[in-house]
Design a protein that fits this description.
It is a single chain. It is built from 19 helices and 19 strands. It is an alpha/beta fold. It folds into 5 domains: about 110 residues, 3-Layer(aba) Sandwich (Rossmann fold); about 35 residues, Sirohaem synthase, central domain (Double Stranded RNA Binding Domain); about 60 residues, Helicase, Ruva Protein, domain 3; about 110 residues, Tetrapyrrole methylase, N-terminal domain (Cobalt-precorrin-4 Transmethylase, domain 1, 3-Layer(aba) Sandwich); about 140 residues, Methyltransferase, Cobalt-precorrin-4 Transmethylase, Domain 2, CATH 3.30.950.10. Helix 7 runs antiparallel to helix 8 and helix 13 crosses helix 14.
Length: about 475
Amino acid sequence: MDYLPINIDLKNKDCLVLGAGAVAARKIQMLLKVGAKITCIGLEINKAIIGLSEQRKIKLVNADLIANSDTLLTAKYLKEFKLIISTTGDSFIAQKVYKICEINNILINTVDNRALCNYISPAIVNRNPLIVSISSAGAAPVLARNIREKIEKLLPAKLGLLAVKADDLRAKVKSTFSSMLDRKKFWERFFESSIAEDILNERLLVSDYELIDEVKKNIDSKGEVALVGAGPGDPELLTIKALRVMQKADIVFHDRLVSSEILELVRRDAELISVGKTQGNHSVPQDQINDLLVKHAKLGKRVVRLKGGDPFVFGRGGEELQQLKQHDIKFQIVPGITAAIGCSAYAGIPLTHRDYAQNVLFVTAHCKDSRDTLDWKSLAREKQTIAVYMGLMKSDYLANNLISHGKKPETPVALIENGTCSQQRVIRGQLKNLHETIQLHNVVSPSLIIIGEVAALADDLQWFKPQNYKNNEPFEQYSKIA
């Protein structure tokens, strides 16, 4: 994030607009909406600006900025203003004003010149006092405007009435609910209630305390745990329900494989706790994770257990729910796209195909208590696909057992590292040299191994081609048989 969004109070503050054309007129109208005291300096004056001057809504200075630069473009003069907008398009004026503003900590926006700005004007959806700002950090103003137009259609015109009512209720709610958690639950229930709809339609007929009591009746004081699948990595593969649950969470226990982009979507004031594991290194033991889920749910919190992929596919979700059930904790499960489905799709590998594979097996090479419970004879059958989770460290053992039980040594394999993410690599090889391929290309976790004839289809069907994150070499380099 290149810019920190903030809202600034400009009421009765002196603001300067340099230039007096059509662009300046639009900027002045926006400043007037927030009650700024505006001075506009320009030589060729737009009719709208003349009108505002005649109405005494702004101070207009009809002057040539370049000819009068010794008096108008000086630190002594510019320091009088809280904020400056430069719309002249003249490079001499723009650079001189920007340098003065930077030295003197004055907010400056130079229209259509991001390099000469220390703040960016966002596109705005106005539902006063509720304001939605959309910014592309100056990179694509038209895109920001397009998004604003979409949001305009979604938000009721009178949505600001809810914010006004919430402000009226704030002190009463604080006196009614002693804990911040209870107040948070009240506000969430309030904004989802039929009362909120009555406010939007300006037909509220109850007093403030009656309103609070009515909402209070519908607040669930018990905690709940949501077991949520975060998918294989690409945040756009989250389900709508997963996103909704994540944005209501009070506390989130997340795995190591949950991407930072997905964690960014969690509610801002939620507590984030990493309980991630790597092979041979459990940062938080599973029994302790189970206890933490129970503990925080009993405190009345909405707990999210956020797992990479799907929580019921090699995710220990069943173990966690058994613990919750024993303690009579309310829970729900939000499925996610498991790695085998997501990563193979992004690698262009169909897990089943009428010509090559009539079934697919999901296998983990990381068994409980290191016991080998795999049915090697069944795994070695032809005309099927094997998707191996957590198989890098046991790749040699995996390949040798499959071959010894009848799998062809030349069986195609594909290694998918960081599947569905911008760092994705797809490396093709054969079963007989699986371990050597992993070492040669320095394949690291998280990676999925696909074994079967369908793996060879990645050469023709690959469509997702991110640039390699280490040396910027293209995807195709990693699509060759080792």
